[in-house]
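queue> pop job 88
queue> type: inverse folding (structure -> sequence)
queue> payload:
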């Protein structure tokens, strides 16, 4: 879908682009998940200082349970990291039996 920016000021262009991106992500699937859902899952574990930065996070079973109640699964987090950072995450048991450790090298271009 092409957006016609004719006559728009910068704020209008930014809103139009955001709406276009939201529509695309809500209607396009990657690895069986809508991109909008992958974004929500990825944002749970992404580095707080920027999405390109490496991820190294331990997640408790309790947090995973709360996320699953929101519809977010470990598979979605894994697919979200692959989609947004373009790399493969390592997901394994964490420092205790009730944790998982998620590690990603981050976006490399």
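queue> result:
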């Amino acid at each position: 879908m092409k957006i016609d920016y004719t006559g728009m000021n910068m704020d209008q262009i930014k809103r139009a682009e955001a709406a276009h991106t939201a529509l695309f992500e809500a209607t396009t699937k990657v690895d069986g998940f809508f991109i909008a859902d992958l974004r929500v899952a990825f944002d749970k574990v992404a580095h707080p200082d920027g999405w390109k930065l490496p991820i190294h996070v331990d997640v408790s079973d309790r947090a995973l349970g709360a996320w699953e109640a929101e519809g977010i699964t470990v598979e979605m987090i894994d697919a979200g990291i692959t989609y947004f950072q373009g790399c493969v995450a390592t997901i394994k048991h964490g420092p205790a039996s009730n944790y998982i450790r998620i590690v990603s090298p981050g976006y490399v271009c």
